[in-house]
Each structure stands twice: as structure tokens, then as C-alpha cells.
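Input.
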Amino acid sequence: MNLDRTAASAFSVEDLRAVAKRRLPRAIFEFFDGGAEEEVTLRDNIDAFRQIRIVPKALNDVSKVDTTTELVGGPSAMPLAIAPTGAAAFGRHGADIAIARAAAAMGIPYSLSTSATASIEQIADAAPGRLWFQAYILSNKEKLASLIQRAHAADYEGLMITVDLPVGGKRERDFRNHLVFPFKYTPRNVLDFALHPGWSLPMLLKGAPEMENIKELKRDNQGGKKLASSVGKNYDPAFDWQQLQIMRDNWSRKLIVKGIMRPSDAERLVKMGIDAIVVSNHGGRQLDSAPATINALPAVVAAVAGRVPVLVDGGVRRGVDILKARALGAQGVLTGRATLFGAAAAGQPGAARALDILKDEFSRAMQLSGVSKVSEIDQELIFNGRS
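Output.
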């Protein structure tokens, strides 16, 4: 397969998703694509973006468009950063590094997940750029402290604490597909893997990836027998505000908190000195029936009142989604699945293609909306029935 040709044949993130779906076994694709329980929130994240309408400003000079902006205290080629995505190399070997390199080449921040299939140091060596380390709150506090120290030593500029995973969401697609991490081979998923040789042969030759930063932790692999996701079993449900304050006090660089939906929580984070907030429902993979993040965004932005940057993730599939989020007060968005689909479909060229598509669509949406700079994107672009 010519990866560059495969990437070039995609004209939307959905095109890359379709290629990834054909190439991957059902269990792997649905792990990336799916959500919790009935996937109400997963669908709402996307649908809520689609329901927002833009009212263009006419007769402005948009012959030149500048998509650059500030994102969490540093420069970015557009109001977009890569969200942390775990287990990426189960889609294609080397996917974490491929996505990180695509982000560095584009000039946007990249977030490395605790459950990534590349180590903190591998990413720092292979893809120097604006790096954030996303820390899940492990029950093993010595291991958590070690990961944070390693991120500091590797010169990650930001630490992102995810606070919406006290326990794993009930991801029923994984149960039905017999998918747990590490892999347990069953007749069902072995047949699934065998029917996708383009995926399975490289996995046989190179071996199954490991979650490099936490591979030594013991896991409870009972999977569906407990009706609990294999994701989240090493995490601490007792983590609270006091413990977050200790982390704030001990981390001298940018501290980002991801997984906030309530304005009162955002207000409290501002007061404790957090540097940025991500409005997130974990891509619909945790609490099903949580509101769509783009709908929750305005109230959080109002509570923060410009004191710290607010980002949003969940449901970003088009460049115009970036414009909509910015118009509703977000400094920028995070995307995880777009580049994950790209890397699974076509490696680094696929991840780069996903970012190129989003940037082209965002630039075009700016022109069609009558704005030439990111700073000109504001609430006036949102159709409210009176514009």
C-alpha cells in the first residue's frame, strides 16, 4: 500500500475514518471510534457542532488569511492541538510518533497520553515541538510521580491532568468484541484479526504494542465479566481538589485540567491557579448522557471570564468546527480521533493529511465567514435568529 497515495485520496476526516475502518479489525476500529453505553454523548458531540449556524460578514478583504494564534501561552499554526489518545499503535505501529511528528511539522501542540504506545522520551526525541504530557491519576502514586518527573526532564512544557476518569466508562463495543488490554485472544477476535491481514501481519511480525509508560503495572483482565472497561482499572477514584492543589504547587510549568463541564468547577480551578481548562466529556467514552461539549462551552467561558484559556474537545470533524468553537469563546480545540484515523489509515502521511484537511477547511471557513485573522472570530458570527 502506498501510504502517501492513500492519504492524498482523502478529502475529509470522514474519508480517513472510512479507510481506517476498512483496514482495521472491527474490535480495534470500534475501540477508537466508539463510546460508552448507548453512545448518546458520542453522537451529541458531533451533532451539536452540526446544529450551529454561521452568519457571514460581507464585503471584507479575505484575500489573505492568517490562521496563527496563541494557544495556552505559546504559538500555534491554528487554534488546534492534538488531544491525548491512548493505544494508538494498535491501529498501526508507530502511530503515536507519526501523529506527534505531524503536529510538530504543522506547528501545533501535541498531547501524549499516559496510556500511549510510545514513551515520554521517545516522543520528545522523535518529535520535538510543543509537547504536553497528559497524566491519568494512577492509584500507584509513586508511578504517577515518576511519570511527571520524566515529563519534566524531557522538557514537556505542559502537564494535562484528566479528571473525568475516576473509573472506566462502560464501553459495550469492547465487551462484545472481546477486547481488553493487554490482548486476550478468543475465537471471536482471532477470526476478526485474521480477516484483516493488512493489520494482522504487521502485528504478528512486530508484536503487539505495549502501553509504554505504564506497561509494568498489573492489570485486572477480567474485562466484560465485571461489566467494566479495561480502561481505567489502574486509576484512583479518590483523587480530589486537595490533591490537585498539591500537583499545582509541585509543577512549575503550564498545568492544564481536562474533563471540566461545570462552570462552578472552572471557577474553582481559576482560583487555584490552573493555567488552562479543557471542556471535555472524554469524547463520549465515559458518562453517557453528559452534554455535548460545544453546548457546555459558553457557560464555562463565562465563568472563567478571560482569566485563563478555555479549550474544548469532542466532536471536532471539520475545520468549521474550529471556527464555531472559537466564536463561542474557546481559545482553541483539541482533536484526537481525526489524526488517529489518519495514522491508522496511512501512518504519518495520514496524520498529516488530517491536519492539512482541517487547516484548509478552517482557512476556507474564515474566508467564507468574512474574517482574515483568528482574533476577528467572535460571537457575532453565530446565528441566533436575529443576525
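The CA atoms of residues 16 and 269 lie 37 Å apart.
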